[in-house]
């Protein structure tokens, strides 16, 4: 019978999956909790709402760049020590963000927060991977851990809206403090100390991967903010792709590369990596676009907009117990194709809104969107890791985590880029032009979502766990 509880096996603390899940929730919640709060934060810091995009991207991009180091750090110093240090850094960064007085300070403090998150998420997941030996229990545990990763980014705008309306934007960060303290206490008792003192880090490989991630993300963000021309943007993107190509060449020759190329021999894992990147292009920006759309076009309060967006979280939670049974019944390919079709349809439905659109319409569309996104990314991530052999568990965990954060960063940037292109250089707070720009953006993202789903055809028919 489907359950939202993690599997229990002898010798493994039942709190371990909860620790990994809560750490993932904290990290992913902070990736989007600012979305609804951006207009209030922008007014407080003397910036425009679109300028605040850099606060979101700085955090997610720090995760994408530093996650590849987390596996080596966890192996070298042990999972418990690394996890505890990560919680301290994340909580400290949250406090510093609440004390920020300018956009530059906020970005710097978000980087500190991101460093903690980059260590926290993969370390918790790695401990789960190494603690659950058989494939079935590992997949159930990963499915449980993945739930907050879906709920966090979707619930973030709702929580942020309520906090801004009834308190102040500073509490968007301060809510992490009690959770961090509780997590630290529980980790002292229940996080296993798994280490490998002989572990080495591929410095050259890390620099190439980090360089590729930074170049591509920076180019897209600056182009979206109209601070970089098309030629310079294309040059930076080409340089980023070249860095990844150089890494492939390096990995073929290195004795212990950062990500062994043999890991891509697992088709399900490879599709999971590529699927995360292409799927987020269509859906990754919706939790950022919708709060802005509802507040700037409909003049909703942050709390009103946040409550409507809670429909996504509710649907994602309700769909979660069905993920593993659906994969076993129909296979990963069928579940991914069906869920991707629904994601695109829900995004397209947002283009058929107007000044008189009711709350019920938004809630209905977002219920479908939350259901489909939950099925899509749970299937992608759980299936990708569950099929890896033990010798590739650590590298696969790091690579998937990196791809997830890079995909989220690119998804946010791509959505704002499309919106800015349709809206023009000026940011209209309301009126027909705003509706037209958002509608065109939603149509574009729906088409991108459907086009990206073609990658799932690479999976063989009835590709499912044993």
Fold blueprint:
Layout: H1 15-32, H2 38-45, H3 53-77, H4 79-98, H5 103-131, H6 135-166, H7 171-174, H8 176-190, H9 203-224, H10 230-253, H11 267-283, H12 286-296, H13 302-319, H14 323-330, H15 332-349, H16 359-386, H17 393-423, H18 432-452
Helix pairs in contact: 1-5, 1-6, 1-8, 3-4, 3-5, 3-9, 3-17, 4-5, 4-8, 5-6, 5-17, 6-13, 6-16, 9-10, 9-17, 11-16, 11-17, 11-18, 12-13, 13-16, 14-15, 15-16, 15-18, 17-18
Keywords: Cell membrane, Membrane, Transmembrane, Transmembrane helix, Transport
InterPro entries: EmrB-like, MFS, MFS_dom, MFS_trans_sf
GO molecular function: transmembrane transporter activity
Tell me the name of the CATH class. Answer: Mainly Alpha
Largest sheet: none
| Amino-to-carboxy terminus distance | 17 Å
Strand content: under 5%
**Number of helical runs?**
18
Mean pLDDT across residues: 82
* Radius of gyration from the alpha-carbon trace, in angstroms: 21 Å
Q: Based on the structure given, which CATH architecture is correct? A: Up-down Bundle
| Tally of individual domains | 1
Class from helix and strand fractions: mainly alpha
Care to describe what's here?
The chain has a single domain, classed as Growth Hormone, Chain: A (Up-down Bundle), CATH 1.20.1250.20. The chain has 466 residues and is mainly α. It is globular. It is built from 18 helices and no strands. Helix 3 (53-77) runs parallel beside helix 5 (103-131), helix 3 runs antiparallel to helix 17 (393-423) and helix 17 (393-423) packs antiparallel against helix 18. Its main location: membrane.
């Amino acid at each position: 019978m489907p359950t939202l509880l993690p599997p229990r096996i002898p010798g493994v603390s039942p709190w371990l999956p909860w620790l990994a899940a809560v750490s993932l929730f904290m990290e992913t919640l902070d990736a989007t909790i600012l979305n609804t709060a951006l207009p209030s934060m922008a007014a407080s810091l003397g910036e425009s709402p679109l300028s605040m995009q850099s606060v979101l991207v700085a955090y997610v991009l720090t995760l994408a760049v530093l996650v590849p180091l987390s596996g080596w750090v966890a192996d070298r110093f042990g999972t418990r020590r690394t996890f505890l240090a990560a919680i301290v850094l994340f909580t400290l960064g949250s406090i510093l963000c609440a004390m920020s007085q300018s956009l530059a300070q906020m970005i710097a403090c978000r980087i500190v927060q991101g460093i903690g998150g980059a260590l926290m998420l993969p370390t918790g997941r790695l401990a789960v991977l190494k603690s659950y030996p058989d494939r079935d229990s590992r997949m159930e545990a990963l499915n449980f851990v993945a739930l907050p990763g879906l709920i966090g980014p979707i619930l973030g705008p709702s929580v942020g809206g309520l906090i801004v309306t009834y308190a102040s934007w500073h509490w968007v960060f301060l809510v992490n403090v009690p959770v961090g303290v509780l997590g630290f206490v529980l980790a002292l008792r229940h996080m296993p100390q798994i280490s490998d003192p002989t572990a080495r880090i591929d410095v050259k490989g890390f620099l190439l991967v980090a360089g590729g991630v930074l170049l591509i993300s920076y180019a897209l963000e600056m182009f979206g903010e109209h601070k970089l021309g098309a030629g310079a943007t294309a040059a930076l993107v080409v340089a980023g792709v070249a860095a990844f190509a150089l890494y492939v060449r390096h990995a073929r020759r290195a004795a212990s590369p950062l990500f062994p190329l043999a890991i891509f021999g697992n088709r399900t894992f490879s599709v999971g990596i590529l699927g995360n990147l292409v799927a987020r292009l269509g859906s990754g920006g919706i939790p950022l676009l919708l709060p802005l759309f509802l507040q700037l076009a409909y003049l909703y309060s942050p709390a009103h907009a946040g409550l409507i967006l809670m429909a996504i979280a509710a649907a994602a939670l309700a769909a979660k117990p069905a993920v593993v049974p659906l994969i076993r019944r129909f296979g990963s390919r069928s579940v991914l194709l069906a869920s991707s079709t629904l994601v695109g349809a829900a995004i397209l439905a947002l283009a058929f809104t107007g000044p008189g659109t009711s709350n019920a319409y938004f809630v209905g569309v977002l219920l479908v969107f939350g259901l489909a996104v939950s099925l899509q990314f749970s299937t992608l991530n759980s299936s990708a890791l569950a099929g890896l052999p033990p010798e590739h568990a650590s590298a696969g965990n790091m690579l998937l985590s990196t791809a997830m954060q890079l995909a989220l960063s690119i998804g946010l940037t791509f959505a704002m880029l499309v919106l800015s292109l349709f809206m023009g250089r000026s940011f209209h707070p309301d009126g027909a032009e705003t509706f037209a720009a958002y509608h065109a953006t939603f149509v574009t993202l729906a088409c991108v979502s459907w086009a990206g789903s073609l990658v799932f055809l690479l999976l063989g028919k009835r590709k499912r766990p044993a």
